[in-house]
Amino acid sequence: MEAAAAAAAGTGCGPGSPLLLSDGEQQCYSELFARCAGTASGGPGSGPPEAARAAPGAATAAAGPVADLFRASQLPAETLHQITELCGAKRVGYFGPTQFYVALKLIAAAQSGLPVRIESIKCELPLPRFMISKTEGEIRFGNSAELHGTKVQIPYVISEKNTFKRMDDEDKQQETQSPTMSPLASPPSSPPHYQRVPLSHGYSKLRSSTEQMHPAPYEARQPLVQPEGSSSGSQGAKPPRHQASLIRSFSVEREPQDNNSNYPEEPWRITEEQREYYVNQFRSLQPDPGSFISGSVAKNFFTKSKLSIPELSYIWELSDADCDGALTLPEFCAAFHLIVARKNGYPLPDTLPPTLQPEYLQAAFPKTKWECTLFDSYSDSMPANQQPHDLNWMEKLSINDMTDFPVPTQDMTGNDKQALKSTTDEALPKDMSENPATPKESNSLKARPRSRSYSSTSIEEAMKRGEDPPTPPPRPQKTHSRASSLDLNKVFQPSVPATKSGLLPPPPALPPRPCPSQSEQGFEAELHPQLSRAPSQAAESSPTKKDIPYSQPPSKPIRRKLRPENQAAENQEPSATAGGPASAATVKPHPTVQKQSSKQKKAIQTAIRKNKEANAVLARLNSELQQQLKEVHQERIALENQLEQLRPVTVL
Amino acid sequence: MAVCVAVIAKENYPLYIRSVPTENELKFHYMVHTSLDVVDEKISAMGKALVDQRELYLGLLYPTEDYKVYGYVTNSKVKFVMVVDSSNPALRDNEIRSMFRKLHNSYTDVMCNPFYNPGDRIQSRAFDSMVTSMMIQVC
């Protein structure tokens, strides 16, 4: 076949000069050709159409695999176009053996730096090199003679970590076949792969160990695997695809891409193995998976990836969703994923892809045990997002170096923070003890109340946040400090009442308040802030004005429309003042309550929260209207007085 | 609303400066530079007081015929200077304050990035987009 092919190639060539193929070349090329033609039907992303086209025997190689193969040669696109034209495929419309061989020769020429011309292929050329892109097998054309076991890898242009994988496979191939050749005789570097060059150094160091297990025993199993076939004895690659580490310590492991199956859409999707790997790396940096990695630790770690600082900075910006200078586990996974993608040549996205959002990551991989246990322990009456969310906010408020929660409010300087501190100190340790690391992964942190009251800008430095709270804050006032503390109490104690009394029954007017809200109020001895309480942090920050105390009575009728619990709660407010003992009492049952878990509680609490929010809004509105009414009254009185004074004059 | 936004470091060199593209952007740079004196003056005026007592928003630094320059200083002596167009009468003090607040918040986000060394030029895309949103309103 080779001879015939050679002859045919010779006749098929443009200028008519015979194409001389050495034996090695002939063998390679024919294998490649067979691969392209034969695997068209089984090719992974190429699709059936090419297979159909190539159906009539092996006379033609399907365009898809061929294109992929050419791309694997790492030559720029224009060069490939030139090659395609030159070899005559464009003329005849398909890749026959002739064209294919000529093309391969041209690729070899281009890779050697010769101009892409027919004349170039007349001389002796090394074999063209194709970098492995996909997992199926590996093609390794090198000057050394490991020709057996070569397979065309259909490059997955989009799949991440291809380069890693390639290196790895090449390493293995090399190891088994001829230890002499460096697998990374770098191909003419196409720009997106420039970063692979440093990888090569790392890899060469690791070559001795590539055959061995890599630190993390992840196996890359490509879902789409071309039939390795017989000759891939040396491959052994399929099962144990280990990712070599760039640098030992960094140990970036190539994970198999599950997303290979849907590669056009999801280069940003994290697979299970990847996720496990990331989690392990996270644990190596921070033993508690529920806690943060501080900025400096993460910086040191990611710097090992040898990306440039601006890029790392940008990746951090993308992945640190709550901008707190620390990475939770989902944030860490996202950042790691972005780094790996970048190393593989993907351009960084402008915004965090949806599959890398912390919420998504938490939801998608809920199986991590620590999440579950923490949530369970917390008296998961609250919806996971909200409650941990609040806790999270609390913690973040107080922490720079996230190691030590029960030292909450140290960084808080603002007036409202101090109030928070006093009131929440007791609540915090209780809850913290139960959820030591909770819900950092809650990511509704975006809604986190940049709770600085806007009037006290001095806090802002400490706060490090700057997003507007979700609820439109009417005006910043200092009085909401208490309110926020109340909010937190409410957050922490929601379960109490629910457990105690199914639905909050309309409590008696005074002290013995089983209702949490009431207890909080009493607790705070501050009536009204409660109104403003949007359960989320937003409420806290929100300068939702709670100085509506006076307007309580008028607002009652409005509130009556709301659910009874809230009504009861609100009604209690004005009269509530002396709730101190009640609050204390309610605070104590906390621990006991939290042990219970019921969906009912959850539902009730969400309902309570919503109603309270509505209450707050309405109460606020009411107060404003009252205020206006008063002013108008006063004006009217003033005008009447003037009229009185003027009247005698005019009459006279 | 802003025509030019600048972030000046404690040592009075610019960390970030961006203007609406006009033919004479340099004049905005000059204005910012001259306003630094006014900022220092205002800071030193209340200098002896504790930082907490000092208001971060400095207000109108000085007006020119076409523009007004507002200043804001953080607790770490990083200054924000904003040049706005005088022809916009509806621009109230509160709005300027809120713009500075946003600037400050974005600045703290930039600082949170461990890869950002204080004293470097600010190259954060998020910060850029926030400033752009403030400036685009002019047009």
CATH-derived topology of the domain at 19-36 and 60-133 in chain A: Recoverin, domain 1
Percent of residues in helices of chain A comes to 40-55%
Please give the radius of gyration of chain B in angstroms: 14 Å
Low-confidence stretches of chain B: none
In short:
The complex is a heterodimer of chains A (652) and B (139). With 652 residues, chain A is mainly alpha-helical. Chain A has helices at 2-12, 23-38, 48-54, 63-72, 77-87, 89-92, 97-112, 162-177, 196-210, 272-285, 295-303, 309-319, 329-343, 358-364, 369-377, 386-398, 415-434, 458-463, 480-492, 495-500, 516-524, 529-532, 537-541, 552-560, 564-576, 580-587, 589-594, 599-651, and strands at residues 293-294, 326-327.
Structural features, described:
The complex is a heterodimer of chains A (652) and B (139). Helices cover 52% and strands 1% of the residues of chain A. With 652 residues, chain A is an all-alpha fold. Among the domains of chain A are: 19-36 and 60-133, Recoverin, domain 1; 272-363, Recoverin, domain 1 (Orthogonal Bundle), CATH 1.10.238.10. In chain A, strands 1-2 form a two-stranded antiparallel ribbon. Chain A is elongated and about 120 Å long. The model of chain A is unreliable at 1-17, 40-58, 133-263, 368-468, 494-509 and 512-585 (pLDDT under 50). In chain B, α2 (93-112) runs antiparallel to α3 (125-136). With 139 residues, chain B is of the alpha+beta class. The longest helix of chain B has 21 residues, at 25-45. Chain B has a 5-stranded antiparallel β-sheet with strand order 2-1-5-4-3, sandwiched between helices. Chain B is built from 3 helices and 5 strands; from the N terminus they run ββαβββαα. Chain B is globular and about 40 Å long. Chain A binds chain B through residues 295-296, 298-299, 309-310, 312-314, 316-317, 320, 323-325, 350, 413, 450, 454, 457-458, 460-461, 463-467, and chain B through 51-52, 55-57, 74-76, 97-98, 101-102, 104-106, 108-109, 111-116, 123-126.
